[in-house]
Write a structure and sequence with these properties.
The protein is built from 1 helix and 15 strands, in the order E-E-E-H-E-E-E-E-E-E-E-E-E-E-E-E. The protein is mainly beta and about 190 residues long. It is globular, with a radius of gyration of 17 Å. Bound molecules: fructose -6-phosphate and manganese (II) ion.
Length: about 190
């Protein structure tokens, strides 16, 4: 039998870009993030079509036991005094975790359990983040370059954004050039 040496998809670790036959891309723009940033007036001054982050994903089979692989590229920037960030979510299947790997740029991973207890991990090239089940997660770009992070998660996890309608219990702000994490009651 002739054994073939198949070429798998690849990722350029420094930039997080995939090479593969089928890549799915989704851009989230400032206008899509209504209610996410605390300074609504500042959010309204930004053109709604301004890209904030792009997720590129390998096209993978879906179903119990299958895995998704995707990279998030989060632009540097601020809405008022708040750093650009992803919307953030729990998984619909709460027990399902995820692993993030920092590839480029610098930022924070905001995590929060179901009792609203938040914590932060620094994201940098080479950082590894094991996100447990039952834990909401959001990337925050506190640097001046694009923040890229590779993620692997169960294809059955799903996204639950609605459970975070009150927002996260921490906001990460730029206070005169310093990164400042502020605890808040209602997002
Ligand atoms: C998948 C995952 C990431 C995020 C991406 C965008 O479970 O955690 O691929 O989906 O960083 O963030 P959200 O989905 O919060 O807009
Ligand atoms: Mn996730």
């Amino acid at each position: 039998m002739a054994i073939s040496f198949n070429m798998p998809p690849s990722v350029a670790f420094l930039a997080g870009q995939f090479t593969a036959d089928d890549i799915i891309k989704k851009t989230t723009r400032c206008g899509d993030l209504s209610g996410v940033f605390h300074d609504r007036a500042a959010w309204q001054t930004i053109p709604p079509d301004t890209p904030v982050y792009e997720v590129e994903m390998l096209s993978s089979p879906q179903g119990e036991g299958e895995l998704f692989v995707g990279t998030t590229h989060l632009q540097p920037g601020r809405v008022g005094d708040e750093f650009y960030m992803t919307r953030g979510h729990f998984h619909q299947r709460r027990e399902q975790g995820e692993v993030y790997f920092g590839l480029r740029g610098s930022g924070l991973l905001l995590l929060q359990n179901e009792a609203r207890k938040p914590w932060l991990e620094k994201v940098f090239p080479g950082s590894v983040h094991v996100i447990p089940g039952f834990t909401a997660h959001r990337l925050i770009n506190t640097g001046s370059d694009v923040l890229s992070a590779l993620a692997v998660w169960p294809s059955t996890a799903g996204h639950d954004y609605a459970a975070l309608e009150r927002g996260f219990a921490l906001r990460v702000l730029d206070r005169e050039g310093k990164i400042f994490a502020k605890e808040v009651q209602n997002g």
